[in-house]
# Entry
Amino acid sequence: MDIDPDDLILKLRTATDRTSVLEQTRYYRWLVGELHRFFERIRLVAAFLWNGSGLATTIAEQLARRRGIVVIFGENGYLPNTFQLDATGVNTFSSFARTWGLDEIRALRWTEVQRQELAVLLAAYRDSRLPRPQGPGKERLRASWIARLSPAGGT
# Structure
């Protein structure tokens, strides 16, 4: 089954993964072959993929979609105690990002109460003061090491 390298490269976050695709490295060819055989052997009706920007995930997405397999992406939410599911991807490739432009998001109007609630959540998140769960066990939740917030236009 053919893979569209241009489509893969758009979604890959690391230079190493992009180089693997561009140079058709041994590992890349092996991974494509293994995932292709997996899809042929298992005959999935749906695939749950975490994140969406890793080499294996982008290849799996492409192979699944070409077979007409439903794809659902999962990712840590942007705020504590949140989780996101999306059929098109996460972050830049999410249905939200594809539907709303940055100007439309900036144009939304929030009440002062909503702004204060968000400020409290963001301050706690930035200070690693995450809320404790209410259910059994009540262990402390930790934010993903990869999740971070930065001011608009910042790095």
